[in-house]
Amino acid sequence: MDGELLGRIAETRVHRPEAIAEAAGRRKRRTHLVGPAGRLFVVAADHTARGILAAGTDRDAMRDRATLLERLCIALSRPGVDGVLGTADIVEDLLLLGALEDKVVIGSMNRGGLGGTVFEIDDRFTGYDAAGIASMGFDGGKMLFRIDPEDPATVATMAACAHAVDELAERHLMAMVEPFVSHRFDGGVRNDLSADAVSRGVTVASGLGRTSAYTWLKLPVVEDMHRVLAASTLPALLLGGEVPEDPDTTYAAWQEALRHPTARGLVIGRAVLYPTDGDVESAVDTVVGLL
Fold first, then answer.
1. Distance between CA 192 and CA 266 in Å, rounded?
2. How far apart are CA 107 and CA 142, in angstroms?
3. Which pLDDT tens digit goes with each residue over 198-239?
4. Helical H runs in 239-279?
5. d(CA 216, CA 266)
6. C-alpha dihedral over 21, 46, 179, 77, to 10 degrees?
């Protein structure tokens, strides 16, 4: 991903911004969200819109956009990778690079709950909306839904997520809901990753909106994951989280969780884009093998 290519993207954005919509309009789209096996592997790339730049031990890993785009293009080119989850800036760069042909595209919707702020639980919808996702010919929208029992901002996020579920369902688009039970601790927000807390998040998220027909869940892999997945009949995608210190143990946990009938795939970002050995192709291929 050289400077010349980035320069061309910038030139297009300056002189022909309409080229983004044109690229979306002519993009080859998949006829089905999932393949014959009913599985889905999506690469997550919406971290930077919340100011999250760290991956593993590198606090600034995702600061350089050229490097991030190069790694995304490598990942999307590998067999078995179904698509990408991202905010408009990244998705549109990938459109201009021609990297989204025949791929699932999920737009990230609420990125307003910035880490380290007093308003972190107020996860306002500052990214895609359902109308924008539909107009670009994308496949769904993802929303973060954190439940803090002591923060009244939770109910506003809950209502906004329910509204987004309805608007996506009206357009027959996936609503990917990522629930957590969260608490303020030492000046920040931390997610409770106990099986009981994650199960509670699953049950509340499953009931959002006037229909759950198009709702999928995005869930962390925790201990007693089969009990968590048994809390709902909604299809679930397992999230990757940070770059694992022990990849083999992490992969084994993902594979075990994928045996549950409601576990339908993976949404992995930093773990495959910034593996400890730097080999994106190998990391992606290993995860594809789990499916």
1. 20
2. 6
3. 999 999 999 999 999 999 999 999 999 999 999 999 999 999
4. 247-257, 270-273
5. 12
6. 80
